[in-house]
Write a structure and sequence with these properties.
By secondary structure, this protein is an alpha+beta fold. The chain has 2 domains: 117 residues, D-amino Acid Aminotransferase, Chain A, domain 1; 158 residues, D-amino Acid Aminotransferase, Chain A, domain 2. It is built from 8 helices and 17 strands. The strands form 2 sheets. Strands 8, 9, 10, 11, 12, 13, 14, 15 and 16 form a 9-stranded mixed sheet that branches. Strands 1, 2, 3, 4, 5, 6, 7 and 17 form an 8-stranded antiparallel sheet that branches. The longest helix is centred in the first third of the chain and has 14 residues. The chain is globular. The structure holds pyridoxal-5'-phosphate. Pyridoxal-5'-phosphate binds next to helix 6 and strand 14.
């Protein structure tokens, strides 16, 4: 990670190297942290944040689920994200708001801890690398996606990502780029940090929210594109073998963007080209860079 200049911490910008916390911070020990992953892109209007309102809405909802009183309104956190981009050198960047139970009290009752809120940003290329040409090699994980009866999957809580990290490490150790997790019912849920879409017989589909996925904002963007492009689209469950026999598969996520999958567990995907994925990926690239007027409402310029 290339150091930037400033991090926003509890209401003010502090120098990058001074944005530190104590090792006995409660959230570090018990996973009590909720966060977001947002991106700013360079557009004809300068740097702009993509779907900022929706990301902060999800952040506030994650806080609500975990009974965290952030002490800042959604508007204040949106403004802080803009301030972070404005005050750092990388204008095309990944933005990471995080709220966590702070230093002072230990024990499993998090309600006695003060909540800290911080926002950092850094330059981050496509999370799964430049897959636009090659495509991602994925494997179905032996780890099952955390069940929403055990952990609220709609809350973007750090603790959920231990499950993601296990799947990711397993995939990498087996020589793949990424994992695909099934849920406790044995049907496809999502990637460790991405949602998943498939195309079969010219129909685009993605698992429903009830399959225990994080309701991705990129997923929502793709669904709106599918409507505008007049694709046939369904939210439905898919089995592992339905993945293997798909015509096209792609991941969607703020970090990964639209990432084409070219192989799952040794089965090649997209023999006959990937026209649906390519159209969605092109439109996504235009929308985030302010080159598709219809979607400019999703961009918040950060100002000079
Ligand atoms: C588990 C999981 N699923 C899906 C996504 C995709 O969500 P989004 O498109 O909002 O980045 C993410 C990323 O935040 C994630 O961590």
């Amino acid at each position: 990670m290339k150091a930037q200049s400033k991090i926003w911490m509890d209401g003010k910008l502090v120098p990058w190297d001074e944005a530190k916390i104590h090792v006995l911070t409660h959230g570090l020990h018990y996973g009590m942290a909720i966060f977001e992953g947002i991106r700013a892109f360079w557009t004809p209007e300068g740097a702009a944040i993509f779907r900022l309102r929706e990301h902060i809405e999800r952040f506030m909802n994650s806080a609500k689920i975990y009974r965290m009183d952030l002490g800042f309104s959604a508007k204040e956190i949106e403004k802080a994200c803009m301030e972070v981009v404005r005050n750092n050198p990388a204008k095309e960047c990944y933005i990471r708001p995080i709220a966590f139970t702070g230093y002072g009290e230990m024990g499993l009752n998090p309600l006695t801890s003060k909540i800290s809120v911080a926002i950092g940003s850094w330059e981050w290329g496509a999370y799964l690398g430049d897959t636009s040409k090659k495509g991602v090699r994925a494997t179905v994980s032996s780890w099952v996606r955390v069940d929403s009866r055990a952990m609220p999957v709609q809350a973007k809580c750090s603790a959920n990502y231990a499950n993601s990290a296990l799947a990711k490490m397993e995939a990498l150790a087996a020589g793949y780029d990424e994992a695909i997790l099934l849920n406790t019912h044995g049907v496809v849920a999502e990637g460790p940090g991405e949602n998943i879409f498939r195309v079969k017989d010219e129909i685009l589909s993605t698992p429903p929210a009830s399959s225990g996925i994080l309701r991705g904002i990129t997923r929502d963007t793709v669904i709106q594109f599918a409507r505008d492009l007049k694709f046939k689209f369904y939210r439905n469950d898919a089995t592992k073998e339905e993945l293997y026999t798909s015509d096209e598969i792609f991941f969607s996520g703020t970090a990964a963007g639209i990432a084409k999958v070219r192989e799952i567990d040794g089965r090649r995907i997209g023999y006959d080209g990937t026209p649906f994925t390519d159209k969605i990926a092109r439109l996504y690239d235009q929308a985030v860079h302010g080159k598709a007027k219809r979607y400019s409402k999703w961009l918040t310029p950060v100002g000079a």
